[in-house]
Amino acid sequence: MRLLAHSVTTEQLIEQYQRPLYWHIRRMVVSHDDTQDVLQETFIQIHTHLNELRQADSERAWVYRIATNEALQWLRSKHEFLSFEDEDASPLINTLMADSYTDTGDALVLLMQEAILTLPTMQRTVFNLRYYDELPYEEIASVTGSSVGAAKTNYHFAKEKITNYILAHQ
Amino acid sequence: MKQDIFTQVGKRTPFRTPEWFFEQQEQTLKKAISSQKSVVRPLHRKWWYAVAACALLLIAIYPVMQLVHSSSDSLAPVPDTAPVYSQTSTASDDWSDFAEADVFLDNMNW
């Protein structure tokens, strides 16, 4: 259910979005502890810029955009990732293996996550938003600041690369 | 084969959270936001603060302005210097009278 923009409070947004945003950020920054920090910063940003929600087309796209930006900013500061196009995934794969809240029980699930982490940041973000969060392409385009066509193309290439990675490493 | 991989894995991920994490996290987030509330002020309140600051500044500088104004008034008319000279000459006459009348000074052989 979409809350009315003029009546929505940060507390309501926390109740509604804390779980989906946690998982979205977790899939981007991987570590549980870092996700907590980024999530908190995300809601502080949401609270600070709540007036801007009135101009947003979609409440969900707006909160996801803030979360995505915070996660990317964190990745840049931590791993010196420069843009959506950077491809060095090794620090994230190391974090995945080292994090105490990673379940290493299912090899295929772990391999698929590893494959996702090898994707360029833009493709990875689009794939996660479409595959896990099931956002429509219009909202994905709004979150990533790209076009609908670019979002579709990124998703298509992401699926290809994930499949190829899994087949090569199985 | 492509479909098989995504069907096999589905939406499962290796990511886990501590028990009761989200219940605690919700409270943590709400606390963090409420501590921010004192910092974030609505725009109209900021305008009122600016107006109040200007009013206080005017009240503070008003006495200084008055002082400057009054001192510039006192400097404006230049007083006549003649009475000052006459007073000075009177004072020196007094001193010479006093010297002549003094007993001890008379006794000294200068």
Protein architecture, described:
The complex is a heterodimer of chains A (170) and B (110). Helices cover 70% and strands 0% of the residues of chain A. Chain A is an all-alpha fold and 170 residues long. Chain A has a single domain, classed as Butyryl-CoA Dehydrogenase, subunit A, domain 3. In chain A, α1 runs antiparallel to α2 and α1 packs across α3. The longest helix of chain A has 22 residues, at 148-169. By secondary structure, chain B is mainly alpha-helical. Chain B is 75% helix and 0% strand. Chain B is built from 5 helices and no strands. The A-B interface holds A 10-11, 14-15, 18-19, 22-23, 26-27, 30, 32, 36, 39-40, 43-44, 47-48, 96, 101-106, 108-110, 112-113, 131-132, 159, 162-163, 166-167 and B 1-2, 5-6, 8-9, 11-18, 22, 25-26, 28-30, 32-33, 36-37, 40.
Task: Identify the notable features of this structure and list them briefly.
heterodimer, A: 170 residues, mainly alpha, Butyryl-CoA Dehydrogenase, subunit A, domain 3, 70% helix, B: 110 residues, 5 helices, rod-shaped
Q: Taking all residues together, what is the mean pLDDT of chain B?
A: 73
Count every helix of chain A, treating DSSP H or I runs of 4 or more residues as helices: 8
Shape of chain A: globular
> Percentage of helical residues of chain A?
over 70%
Number of distinct helices of chain B: 5
Oligomer: heterodimer
For this structure, what is the CATH class of chain A? Mainly Alpha
